[in-house]
Write a structure and sequence with these properties.
This protein is mainly alpha-helical. Helices cover 60% and strands 2% of the residues.
Length: 353
């Protein structure tokens, strides 16, 4: 009697954590670089502050836990968190906003739960929402586009970031979503031209906003690159974007004077960043394809509701955190098929396992 030996149905991870983090950082780099070009040296200073402070807070937390800091810092997760925090902030925000954001993201959003892979909420979105609620003025002071070589120099930029030098009012204004929200609150009819013109500017990136709102094209290119490499799956991004596009199309057709077109919704705010780089977070999103579709759909629904009728112009951060809280429930009820769960055509009772 011949017997053949085959390997069991084991799964081997093709990539290490540091490789995944590196790929995500590379995918974000074009949009980050373009944002720094648009808003000059203060944006670069703020990015440096958030990344360095994120690494310092990570090292401090690991030291308190008695864990060697070097291996964990080398995995790139703290660097990625710092980059994402910077992308959610006004480019000319003071240094202490960047440090506070990194502290919230690393300490409260990550290490309190046990570190990488244990957190319930996305750290960058937790920092964004906490800062927006705590410091609304600093978090809603949006500077006009001031390209790197035409804006303030190195010394003046250093003063803007680190010494509390105020930003002249003539250099600030509202984002597209902020102007729309103000119009809603004053019962104004939105000009029809706002839809197409603002959407084009947002897609190119030549308008006010955070580093994560600078270029929908570059962010989408980075996201698609991650999809092609198999770093992320399509379910959450596609369902999120499709939900926002569908709802905005319906309401825009119903009343184009009060509801933005899907073109503007898709290209304004941090929607593209959230769809490809936040909603696809391995830890805080569901594990199954169906669960990710539900997660993305829920995010898209909440984003549209908050943008249209909520008190804040942008709803991406709140939507992600709310759906992060629902993720354990989604994973509980939507589980992958277990190998060997059927015996003689009948499902096994695995409720006690």
């Amino acid at each position: 009697m011949k017997t053949s030996v085959i390997s069991g149905p084991h799964v081997a991870a093709p990539r290490r954590v540091d490789q995944i983090m590196r790929q995500v950082i590379i995918a974000l780099a074009p949009a980050v670089g373009f944002g720094v070009f648009l808003f000059g040296w203060p944006a670069l200073y703020l990015l440096t502050v958030t990344v360095l402070s994120a690494m310092l807070f990570e090292a401090a937390c690991l030291k308190l836990k008695g864990v060697a800091a070097a291996p964990s810092l080398r995995d790139g997760s703290a660097v990625l968190t710092g980059v994402l925090v910077a992308m959610t902030l006004p480019p000319w925000a003071p240094w202490w906003i960047g440090v506070s954001g990194s502290a919230i993201a690393i300490i409260l959003g990550k290490q309190v739960y046990g570190g990488l892979g244990q957190n319930l909420f996305n750290p960058a979105m937790l920092a964004r929402v906490a800062l927006l609620i705590s410091f609304p003025i600093e978090m809603t002071t949006w500077v006009n586009v001031t390209p790197l070589f035409t804006g303030p120099g190195l010394a003046e930029s250093f003063a803007l970031t680190f010494s509390g030098l105020p930003i002249p009012d003539a250099m600030t204004g509202a984002t597209t979503l902020g102007m729309v929200k103000t119009g809603f609150s004053q019962n104004q009819i939105l000009p029809q031209a706002l839809g197409d013109y603002s959407g084009i500017l947002a897609m190119i990136g030549w308008e006010r906003g955070s580093l994560g709102e600078t270029s929908g094209i570059l962010l989408a290119v980075g996201g698609i690159a991650l999809l092609r490499k198999g770093i992320i799956q399509w379910h959450a991004p596609v369902s999120l974007l499709a939900t926002v596009a569908l709802l905005s199309s319906i309401f825009h057709l119903w009343d184009s004077g009060h509801y933005l077109s899907p073109w503007v919704h898709l290209n304004s705010g941090a929607l593209i960043l959230v769809a490809f780089f936040i909603a696809t977070d391995y830890v805080t999103s569901p594990n199954t394809p169906l669960g990710q579709l539900i997660f993305g759909t829920g995010c898209g629904l909440l984003i549209f509701v908050i943008r249209s009728w909520g008190g804040y112009p942008e709803g991406t951060g709140f939507a992600i955190l709310l759906m992060n809280a629902v993720t354990p429930l989604i994973d509980h009820y939507i589980r992958p098929r277990i190998y060997g769960r059927y015996r003689n055509g009948k499902p096994l009772d695995i409720s006690s396992s």
